[in-house]
Amino acid sequence: MNKLPPHHHRNRYTGEILPQSVEVCNVCHLNFTTTAAGDKHRSGKLGERVCLTPKEAKLVKLINKYGSVIYKTRNSPDPRWAIKILPA
């Protein structure tokens, strides 16, 4: 495995290189800029929760310089590492 840049980690399910601040869903393995974005994609009562698609959760798709896909809420500012915004 290649050495990671400082302050980064690897999504253990997909192998994507991510800034340390990025949250990874342990069910669907998608990446989120904040806990709020991760929580928004989960729906239902505790014990019955399911993952929504990024489109259903109205999230915006970002891609970092390593090609990793990360989702954010529409009203949150773009992280400084975001390369481009694509429709989710």
Describe what is shown at a glance:
With 88 residues, the protein is mainly β.
Note down, in words, how this protein is organized.
By secondary structure, the protein is mostly beta strands. It has one domain (18-86). The chain has one helix spanning 35-40; strands at residues 8-10, 17-19, 23-24, 31-32, 42-43, 50-51, 59-63, 69-73, 84-86. The radius of gyration is 13 Å and the shape is globular.
Which features characterize this protein?
mainly beta, globular, two-stranded antiparallel ribbon, 3-stranded antiparallel sheet, 1 helix, 7% helix, 88 residues
What is the helix tally?
1
| C-alpha-based Rg, rounded | 13 Å
The domain count comes to: 1
Note the beta-strand portion: 25-35%
Relative helix content: under 10%
Q: Are there runs of 5+ residues with pLDDT below 50, and where?
A: none
Written as H for each helix and E for each strand, in order along the chain, the element string is EEEEHEEEEE
Overall pLDDT confidence: 85
